[in-house]
Structure formats: structure tokens, C-alpha cells
Fold:
Amino acid sequence: MRIVAITDIHGNMRKAKKMAEAVKNANFDVLLIAGDITNFSNGKVAEEVLGPFLSIGIPVLAVHGNCDGRDVPELLEKLGIWLHNRRREINAIGFIGIGGSNKTPFNTIWELSEDDIRKILLRNYRPGDIVLSHAPPKETKADRVHSGLHVGSEALRKFIEEKQPPLVITGHIHEARSVDEVGATVIVNPGPLFKGYYAVVEFDEKGKRVKDVELEKL
Structure:
């Protein structure tokens, strides 16, 4: 399976259209969007941003971010691509999702308690599933801010340590573009699409493991 992963579009239509063109001209099996489709905007804006991706003709799965408007999850549900607190299969590979983020100092729109994150993960996960989470796991390359602090989810980190999902796609922390590992789990923060960043993952469907990850730029 060839996966293209993006996150943190923050309403940048120019980059969304450019990214959609890049995806259209490549051989991908699924597009994963890890939230913050808008920059505190509504479902109408989100629909405009997502339009280029939905016209490509490949499966799209998405979660909302902590900076998406209150009606964005409803829009994602209407489009049939919402993965928050649910499980979907594509080519016999399972995907589960967590939208929003763990608590931040900024009181943003969509924030969850660590207990809520833990319950969502345990409710939906089956061995070998890929996790799509806006918030990164704690104490990884994917959650370190400029000051050096690690601000990711403790519940997601503990879940990874215990269950060892093969792949976690995340976002949220713009400066933490990275590929990291916790045990057998590969964690990928593609970096924000509004800066032109994305990631390509080659995934072994039979072995349910990551074969290769490339951090790319438009």
C-alpha cells in the first residue's frame, strides 16, 4: 500500500490545489489528512479546501484538528471521510482516528482529555491497524516544540508502547516534522502542508509493517 499523508493545511488553498495535482499524478492507494484543515474556520471553508483532494478518485480518510471550526466534523461525516472515533478498512488494512488534540494552553476548539484519547484508541483498535491522530504521542520527535518541550499525548504514547501499532500518522506541532520509532511503531509527522510538506509511506499489507517513509516537499 502506498500512502500519502498530509496535515495542518490551515486553509491554504494554493497548497491544497498543488498537493492534489501531485497526488493525482502519482500512484497512491489512500490519502490521510491529520487535521487542521482550516484555521479556525467553518465547514464551508473546509469543503473548499478538501474539494481538490476529493476529486482525485482515491480513498481519503481525515480527522479534524484542534483549530477546525465546530461544524467541520459534521462536514467530514457528510463527505464520508471522517475517521475520528471509528475504524475503516482499505485494502484489508484497518485505520482508526483521533481528531482534536490533548489539552493545550490555548483553549482551542477541539481538545480531549487523556482519558478520552485512551478510550477512543482502545474502543476502535485492532492489531495491525494504522492510527491517524492530529495530536502526536508524548516524548517523541513528533511532539517537540521550539523550546524543547514535549507536548504530545501521554495516552497515545502509552497506547503505542502497549499495543505497538505499525504506523501512527500525526501533525499538530508544525516544527516537529519527523520520522521516529517507539519499539516497532513508526511515527510520522509530515510537517504542515501550508508550508508545502507531506509524507509518503510504503506499507506492507501482508506483513502490516512500514517498509519506507519519505518526507517530501512540494
